[in-house]
């Protein structure tokens, strides 16, 4: 999928997946190795250089679900707890419930609150 960066907004999908039939427009998964080989090489090189001293965290499309809160650092602890955290929790609960209702297995969820170290 194409991702563009919009100033003041962040990452955006010009053609997001909205319905199950939208999956038909995705590229063939078999092309991943040829199209993203440079990514695999970069990860391998980085892991070799890190030599196990620190973990390497990467971003992948599936199966892990990632929720980004891009403005956490601007909010600070009190405002984050009031205006962001309740909605993050709500999203997490709804995703879990939706998967259960659909008879699907749970998926890991990563919450990335940019500069939100205070929220750990």
Verbal overview:
This protein has 120 residues and is an alpha+beta fold. It is built from 4 helices and 4 strands. It has helices at 32-35, 37-50, 72-83, 85-101, and strands spanning 4-6, 10-12, 65-69, 109-113. The strands form 2 sheets. A two-stranded antiparallel ribbon has the order 1-2. A two-stranded parallel sheet has the order 3-4. A hairpin with a 3-residue loop joins strand 1 and strand 2 (10-12). The mean pLDDT is 86.
Quick description:
Helices cover 39% and strands 13% of the residues. It has helices spanning 32-35, 37-50, 72-83, 85-101; strands spanning 4-6, 10-12, 65-69, 109-113.
Average pLDDT, all residues: 86
Strand-pairing-aware structural class: alpha+beta
Q: State the total count of DSSP E strands.
A: 4
The SSE order reads EEHHEHHE
Which sequence of strands runs across the widest sheet? 1-2
| Fraction of residues in β-strands | 5-15%
Cα Rg: 17 Å
Query: Largest sheet, if any?
Result: 2 strands, antiparallel
Give me the number of helical elements.
Answer: 4
**Distance between the ends:** 31 Å
